[in-house]
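Help needed: design a sequence for this.
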């Protein structure tokens, strides 16, 4: 199994800390006043707050919480390419969507923090768990 450098572990911990504090500070006030949110805004805020709480585990267990970074990378990529990009290409990007796109583009750092050799060895090449 490839060794993950101490520097990479600290970079991952810093990213988890950013997710925990950044989303926690943004989403906690929304959750406290959830009765005032629209349905989908409430769903999104709940999901992002749950991710923030789970990111706290990543500070202690950065490799075990890698799926959280995968999820963060994938949902941002889907949203940017499936929602923001078509609106931008159609010249229909609202100020709110542009601000969200800017926030999501900060996710560009995620692929540089993920230890890809470790991911390939443990998620691609390693046999999966038994079915029976």
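Sure. Designed sequence:
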């Amino acid at each position: 199994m490839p060794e993950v450098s101490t520097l990479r572990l600290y970079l991952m911990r810093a990213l988890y800390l950013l997710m925990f504090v950044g989303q926690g500070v943004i989403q906690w006030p929304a959750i406290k006043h959830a009765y005032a949110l629209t349905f989908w805004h409430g769903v999104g805020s709940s999901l992002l707050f749950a991710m923030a709480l789970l990111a706290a585990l990543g500070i202690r267990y950065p490799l075990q919480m890698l799926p959280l970074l995968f999820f963060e990378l994938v949902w941002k990529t889907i949203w940017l390419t499936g929602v923001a990009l078509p609106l931008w290409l159609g010249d229909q990007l609202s100020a709110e969507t542009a601000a969200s796109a800017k926030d999501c583009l900060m996710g560009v750092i995620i692929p540089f923090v993920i230890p890809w050799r470790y991911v390939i060895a443990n998620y691609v090449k390693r046999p999966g768990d038994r079915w029976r």
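The chain is about 75% helix and 0% strand.
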